[in-house]
Amino acid sequence: MKISVYRYNPDVDKKPRMQTYEVRPVQGMMLRDALLEVKKQDESFAFRHSCGEGVCGSDGVNVNGKNCLACITPITELKEPIVVRPFPGRPVIRDLVVDMTQFYEQYRAVKPYLIRTDSFPEREITQSPEDRDQLDGLYECILCGCCSTSCPSFWWNPEKFLGPAALLQAWRFLADTRDQATDERLDALDGPYKLFRCHTIMNCVDVCPKGLNPTRAIGRIKDLMLEKGL
Amino acid sequence: MPIPTRHFDALIIGAGGAGLNAALQLAGAETSVAVVSKVFPTRSHTVAAQGGVNAALANVLPDNWHWHMFDTVKGSDYLGDQDAIEFMCREAIPTVYELEHAGVPFSRLDNGKIYQRAFGGQSQDFGGDQAARTCAAADRTGHAILHTLYQQNIRAKTHFFDEYFALDLVRDKEGVISGALVLEIETGEPLLIEAKATLLATGGCGQVFRTTSNAHINTGDGCAMTLRAGIPLMDMEFYQFHPTGIAGKGLLITEGVRGEGGFLVNKDGERFMERYAPRAKDLASRDVVARSIVTEVKEGRGAGENADYVLLKLDHLGADVIDKRLPGIRESSRIFAGADPIREPIPVFPTAHYQMGGIPTDRFGRVVIPARYGSEEIISGLYAAGECACASVHGANRLGGNSLLDILVFGRLAGKDIIEYVRANPHRRETDPASLEQAMARLTRWERTGDGVPAHQLKAEFRKCMEDHAGVFRTEEVMAEGYGKLCELRERFKDARLADQSKVFNTARIEALELENLIDVGLAIAVSALNRKESRGAHSRPDYPSRDDINWMKHSLYYRDGDRLDYKPVRTKPLTVESFPPKERVY
Ligand SMILES: Cc1cc2nc3c(=O)[nH]c(=O)nc-3n(C[C@H](O)[C@H](O)[C@H](O)COP(=O)(O)OP(=O)(O)OC[C@H]3O[C@@H](n4cnc5c(N)ncnc54)[C@H](O)[C@@H]3O)c2cc1C
Ligand code: SF4
Ligand code: SF4
Ligand code: FES
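ok -> structure tokens follow
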């Protein structure tokens, strides 16, 4: 099986190139296993990975034009030749390793933490199972970046549009009955760009390896803004 | 060229649950703190914890911290320190409430309280009926906790050094730890971080074994750094093999599956745990279940083409329960075992999972070693917490749900103690150039070119060796042979070479540095295991099948220098209650 990977090492390369390797497929092989085989043949090849089970969010890559997590993408699902590139639109540090600084900054910008003004009870703050269900499909985000780096609005306005991952987390806290900063959160998202640059192109939903739906979350934030008359 | 230097009051190495909870305490005080992690914090392996965290909240069944303490002492096969265990079980309750207040999306009961499930080794009333003590966020509890702690650190504006790799601890002229030399992975440049107090929170070392539930990054770095600083590691022979890893892959299937009512069967469909643990059955302690599975397979009752695994059945729970309580397991099983647990059982076999031993600490996270005036003298300014540390609350066998608890409780306590320490010791320590040079040598050694084994090849050999010679069952013969091979590997490692000499994000170089750590830690495990001539908890020796409290109720201490061992007594006296004397352990 042929696998072609994007290579660029600023220490030695003037410009990026694609390099093809021959990897022997085995049963149950994931794309991450194939990339590890490539690394065995050529230790200078770099990519991030860790858990190997789709929970740490380290190994997002672009394969045959689509973002995915390498460790849970079976190679049998990929058409040959397999072409692996770094996430689109991000500065490349080396090979498949990209600079995700901006993605993390956008995450931080939505104040992704529970805010309460009331004092805390001695025990847990109670929450009904139905209210807790509202967080399903939101809290599971692993910050892999597959969604935001495939979002056209994010490519065009990365400084201004927060992108699907950050907005999904914004909604995660708005949806939490324990949080008491709704107005503050909505105010912070107001304006033509941060939220409203989403044109429901749905790329984000299409690629999320955890099956989450940022578009819907963005829609819910917009609804809530209307409801609050902002 | 002088190495760039940064100064902080406290340096925390590791951004898993332990490191992040410590950082939160420090950020709240007027203490400057740097958190160094070789991966972006939410990629730390705490993220993979599934089943939950123990606390006697009594939300589902009657419970109290004293029962929790009894189960933990018994689970530890009486090697755990009872003062630390009492402390942890009491602290568990406020710790979980604090987490909930911080935003952890725990699953809920109908009355709005935190959902709790049954886990192995839990009982009511000191060994009575099954308890339900494990607080869960579906089967993604670690993810929920780690992300929440990171989020709270964003709020607290903690100073992070993401993707910096700690190379070694450094000392001042008096020999006091003055921080660590780290490597910025992106640029490949070294940086000296000086601090008045240093906390190691580097997590586990599962990568020592070939088949493991641990991530690629779990390479025992902090433990190896400690060894190189001349400090011993404690109880390293006690390595937990989790009963249910996906067969052939090692990926974890949480004990929560059995807690929700799943059970194990052999190729004949027999529910074999009934034979090994008549009372607790599938929820016996992990060491017991792991040995039972290996025995079933050894005796020819394994399932599958090669009869090399057993089956974990949960289809009878129904799709609703599985999707609500175990969604992550369903997903993993489908992807990696090709089995949808709603319809078919999951093929499982024990997988290397958790180090009970580690850097010896007291219950404030302070590193303690035998010195002139006793077996537990504090090393000034050095702390450890989390899986890399040994307080010791898990003794010879950890109970499920007690590790997340351990990392949170002792991470927090270490953070608090560091605040006091920094107040009492406000002066900056200057690193001794000789110490710095020694740390730098770890890096520059890889600049040597020429012939030599590629580092990655040695790594595969090493991990296989550990799996073959320090697994679930250990005899003198097998272990002695393994030790021989490891010594040889250690020698060959000296000639290992890197072909790639570039600097920017050189992952081959990082892996070579990690391999050095793995070998140091692997030897600690092998030597401690070879010398312990009894069976206790996870350390199971067919040639010494019983526990020997007269000779062996003591903690091992392994020193890297000359593969030397020392021992120290177990702390059997709790803080306020009566101690639990050793009893035969039946489930
Ligand atoms: C699959 C799985 C499931 C589990 N489920 C449960 C459960 O349900 N309940 C339970 O109680 N326990 C569970 N455990 C155990 C528990 O999750 C771990 O013991 C615990 O999370 C370890 O936390 P930690 O903070 O010590 O380390 P980690 O979370 O592993 O963090 C280590 C940190 O150290 C950093 N680091 C390491 N080396 C270096 C270096 N050289 N330089 C810089 N940084 C470094 C890493 O980047 C990382 O940030 C599970 C474990 C696994 C593997
Ligand atoms: S739906 Fe919105 S956020 Fe998602 S990819 Fe499209 S523009 Fe981006
Ligand atoms: S929403 Fe999905 S794709 Fe986006 S960062 Fe989270 S897990 Fe990744
Ligand atoms: S390696 Fe962790 S998500 Fe793929």
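Helices of chain A lie at 31-41, 101-109, 129-133, 152-156, 164-174, 182-189, 203-207, 214-227.
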